[in-house]
Design brief:
The complex is a heterotetramer, with 2 copies of chain A (about 150 residues) and 2 copies of chain B (about 90 residues). Chain A is an alpha+beta fold and about 150 residues long. Helix content of chain A is about 30%, strand content about 35%. Chain A has one domain: Molybdopterin biosynthesis MoaE subunit (Aldehyde Oxidoreductase, domain 3, Alpha-Beta Complex), CATH 3.90.1170. Chain A has 3 helices and 9 strands; from the N terminus they run βαβββαβββαββ. In chain A, the strands form 2 sheets. In chain A, strands 3, 4, 6, 8 and 9 form a 5-stranded antiparallel β-sheet that branches. Chain A has a 4-stranded mixed β-sheet with strand order 1-5-7-2, sandwiched between helices. In chain A, a hairpin with a 2-residue loop joins strand 3 and strand 4. In chain A, helix 2 packs antiparallel against helix 3. Chain B has about 90 residues and is of the alpha+beta class. Chain B has 2 helices and 5 strands; from the N terminus they run E-H-E-H-E-E-E. The C terminus of chain B is likely disordered. Classes of the chains: A alpha+beta (about 150), B alpha+beta (about 90). Chains in contact: A-B, A-C, A-D, B-C, C-D. At the A-B interface, helix 2, helix 3 and strand 8 of A face helix 1, strand 3 and strand 4 of B.
Chain lengths: ~150, ~90, ~150, ~90
């Protein structure tokens, strides 16, 4: 599976890709399109990515997560294009010998993804309007490391 | 000439995905290109402090020299995963 | 789905059973039969349960997990009978508005299950021997709360 | 007479899933039943401190009275999930 893909994300594929008989635990995180955001009804959304960098960022994050938490397997996929309510925008799968490591590693992977992955989301609201969401400045911007996120742009 | 590519909200603000800008230096710094953009596309200027830049697969810093043979890519704050607010949210 | 079942556990069923459009995150934990235990090769295992109490314990743990962490959905299933390497013995699914809650709630559910659920595992080793594994004394035993687990019985 | 049911390693040690034991009191305490078992099935005695007891869906404490109409269920330390060692393991 490509890490950045326009196709629906499949948890079974992710688990098959990470099968490992030495592992007693897996943790899968799924990020799902919700029907509301900051009090407004959401009808759907569109994700775009800067592809050349996004694939590399996810591959490196998988390796970093495995090394940092001593887990055997980590696989991350992120969807782009238009998504409806209830669809998965991101899946993270971690497999490890012990469950505590798997939970920590899974949380690290999704937390870090949100700081590093060049992906942007545009909300389509139920009132017909749309807007790019604010987010986290990447590491080389002047604002990198600022505590506040910027607001939505509409 | 240097190709500049926009992503996310920057596309909306610039009204285009790519822009060609004239550069007088053979290899200007990222900062110099952004300074030039600030003049050419005033709608972007409030956003530039939070913009990161890349060439190919890698981020480049403000002081780095730009390779004019490849596009300079402008990346606004990222919002992968699911909804990000409050800070703890996915 | 019954919470205690002899049938293979299905992550898709668990996710379908917990679907909730208000949730932006899910975490699924899977406990998997490993091919080794304390340095010995494992060929398979058998789980048995005290059924009348086990169903109730899981149902209460789901409710407790939702209340304690403010998560919208929690569903836990545990398999009994004979399992081969790589098969899931337990699945925990949590869905919540925010990802941090989902990770914490998932870990709490599996940690607490291991202290409360009347289920026992018997290992079948690759050398032909077998043995019940040690475990955690339940709350009303004299030894409840002792820090050490007992060893394996073979 | 009272039915006693064994689970997990206790089945192996007792060599049976159930046992009928004579009780002289109408409603003996859990502790009294366990004391009686200690004599009848010596192989269990080392394990009894780590054993919890249940009737129906609920755990009963050592001092609780046993309802002789229902089985007293003996539950050794539990090991649900996946492999439990070391302490952190699943």
């Amino acid at each position: 599976m490509q890490r950045i893909t326009e196709h629906p994300l499949d948890i079974n594929t992710l688990l098959a890709d990470t099968e490992n008989d030495t592992c007693g635990a897996y943790v899968v995180f799924g990020g799902i399109v919700r029907n509301h955001h900051q009090g407004r009804g959401v009808a759907g959304m569109r994700y775009t990515a800067y592809g050349p960098m996004a694939e590399r960022v996810l591959e490196e994050l998988e390796q970093e997560t495995c090394e940092r938490f001593g887990v055997a397997e980590c696989r991350i996929v992120h969807r782009i294009g238009e998504l409806g309510i209830g669809e998965a925008s991101v899946l993270v799968a971690v497999r490890s010998a012990h469950r505590g490591d798997a939970f920590q590693a899974g949380q690290y992977a999704i937390d870090t993804l949100k700081e590093r992955l060049p992906v942007w989301k545009e909300d389509f609201y139920t009132d017909g309007s749309s807007g790019y969401q604010g987010g986290t400045p990447l590491a080389t911007s002047d604002a990198a490391g600022d505590s506040g996120r910027e607001g939505s742009h509409e | 000439m240097l190709d500049v590519e926009f992503y996310g909200v920057l596309q909306q603000l610039a009204g285009t995905r790519t822009l060609q800008i004239e550069v007088h230096d053979d290899a200007p710094t990222v900062e110099q290109v952004l300074e030039r953009l600030r003049g050419d596309v005033p709608a972007l200027s409030d956003h530039l402090p939070r913009v990161a830049c890349a060439q190919g697969e890698h981020l480049v810093r403000r002081g780095d020299r730009v390779d004019p043979a490849r596009p300079l890519v402008l990346l606004p704050p990222v919002s992968g995963g699911s909804h990000p607010l409050p800070a703890e949210a996915c």
